[in-house]
Amino acid sequence: MKANIHPEYRQVVFRDRSGDLVFRTGSTIATDKTIEFDGATYPLVDVEISSASHPLWSGRERVVDTEGRVERFQRRYGVTR
User: Fold this and answer.
1) Which keywords, in A-to-Z order, does the entry hold (predicted)?
2) 27: which residues sit within 8 A by CB, 6+ positions away?
3) Looking at the DSSP assignment, which residues form a beta bridge with residue 27?
């Protein structure tokens, strides 16, 4: 394997402000922001959506379409069984 071609792998904190979720994990993502977390300073990455704020994972999903896709297709194209 070639030397000095891979990005630095380090501990990084990801923060989703809309879902009030902060977690630390390993990543190679580059960022200039830092945060104090668990008594140490880590690079910080703000994300727009995570499992805490995503409608599917948070249980805040709305069902807009009450008619099923198969029934709608059959009605639209005249396909019957």
Assistant:
1) Ribonucleoprotein, Ribosomal protein
2) 9, 10, 11, 12, 14, 45
3) 10
The string of pLDDT tens digits covering residues 12-67 is: 999 988 878 899 999 999 999 999 999 999 999 998 887 777 766 666 655 555 66
Distances (CA, A) of 5 to 2, 12, 14: 6, 20, 25
Burial of 19 (0-12, 13-18, 19+ CB in 10 A): middle
**Which two three-digit tokens encode residue 62?**
């709305």
Cβ neighbours around 78 below 10 Å, total: 6
CA 7 to chain CA centroid, nearest Å:
22
Q: How far apart are the first and last CA of the chain?
A: 59
